[in-house]
Automatic annotation (TrEMBL):
UniProt name for this protein: Uncharacterized protein
Keywords from the UniProt entry: Membrane, Transmembrane, Transmembrane helix
Record organism: Rhodococcus globerulus
Taxonomy, superkingdom: Bacteria
Membrane spanning stretches: 9-33, 39-65, 72-91
Amino acid sequence: MSEAVGPEAWWTVLVGITALLVAGACGVALWSAVPLASYVYFALAMAVLAALGAVWLILSLIGWFKFRAWRWSLIAPALVLVTCALVALSVPSRIAFMASKDSLAAEAQECSTSATDRRIGVYQVRRIESVEHGCLFFIEGGLINSIGLAYLPGGAPYLGVPRHDGDIGYQELDRDWYTFVQVF
């Protein structure tokens, strides 16, 4: 009668370390998607995930062919799939907005134009601009274009992508709140 032999300890440890590193990279990706906090961090997290994907593939193949073990190998891709789903559904951005909404609303009532960097809720606001019937909060993020949140109780002047340089395109977020992109 033969005993079932599991994978060797080195393989289990490497799979566990890979899963922990994947979890860390997924955490950075989720943080940088609030909204795109920093493209550099997001790109770095994606590069790390790509490298870890190669390590995961090698370890998974070794696990399957040498040890007939695959369950531990499923942790890393499960983390990546959950992260992709959360980002695709804008969960990090919505949580950040809900956590910051009261602070943003208080600032929007006053809406004094300011070019001073400051934190409002979870957002690093680079500048606040008063516009007709509302307030624009330019936040950290975006690669080339400016991005932000807009409080426009009368509605956005234009929904959709910006049409030309300097134009602002708005997307609905929550009632009187919109996200925007200003083309550079």
